[in-house]
Structures are given as structure tokens and as C-alpha cells.
């Protein structure tokens, strides 16, 4: 049984997918978010590498959503990991 599923957002920030050559429009993003929410979804999966996905999602009210994001690989020369994480999240 699956208890949780997250909505992937790569296509919100990039022309992503086998058959897609276009980035999803803001209007489509709003529709997708509203539909997903109406079906009980509450978690978004994002990544810094998803183009301008974070900026576009920042234009929406996602206060009721949980957001999971993937960070880039940490450079082996990085000393202060906490600062590195905060810098990337900011």
C-alpha cells in the first residue's frame, strides 16, 4: 500500500521528458497544483537543477504544501556543511 506520493516538478522549470520540448506554463502549473491538491497530494519534489522551477513555484501560495528539494553534490573542499546547505537553500 502506498501512503504518500510527491508531485515531481522538473517540467515546471525545464523542457523535460521524452516527448516534451516545452516548459509547462504558469497557468498549467497552477492547474496541476490545484488538481493534485484536490486529490489529496501535499508534497512537491524539486531540485536546484530543475531550471527556474523554484522561482516559478515561489509565485504560488504553497503554504499548505511540503517541499522536498535535492541539492547539488557537495564539493569535497567544503568545510562548513551547514553554511553550504543554507547558502543553497537561500
Structure description:
- The chain has a three-stranded parallel sheet, with no helix packed on it.
- The chain has helices at 10-13, 26-38, 53-57, 81-89, and strands at 7-8, 43-47, 66-70.
- The model has no long low-confidence stretch (mean pLDDT 88).
- The protein is built from four helices and three strands; from the N terminus they run E-H-H-E-H-E-H.
- It has 90 residues and is α/β, with parallel strands linked by helices.
- The protein has one domain (7-89).
* Residues in β-strands, percent: 5-15%
DSSP summary, beta strand count? 3
Structural class: alpha/beta
What is the oligomer described by this structure?
Answer: single chain
Number of domains: 1
Structural Rg: 15 Å
Kindly state the percentage of residues in helix.
Answer: 25-40%
Strand line-up in the sheet with most strands: 1-2-3
**Averaging pLDDT over every residue, what do you get?**
88
Distance between the termini: 36 Å
Amino acid at each position: 500500500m502506498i501512503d504518500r506520493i510527491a508531485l515531481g516538478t522538473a517540467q515546471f522549470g525545464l523542457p523535460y521528458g521524452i516527448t516534451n520540448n516545452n516548459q509547462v506554463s504558469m497557468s498549467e502549473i497552477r492547474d496541476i497544483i490545484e488538481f493534485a491538491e484536490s486529490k489529496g497530494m501535499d508534497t512537491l519534489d524539486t531540485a536546484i537543477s530543475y531550471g527556474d522551477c523554484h522561482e516559478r513555484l515561489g509565485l504560488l501560495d504553497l503554504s499548505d504544501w511540503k517541499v522536498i528539494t535535492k541539492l547539488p553534490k557537495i564539493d569535497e573542499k567544503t568545510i562548513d556543511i551547514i553554511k553550504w546547505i543554507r547558502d543553497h537553500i537561500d
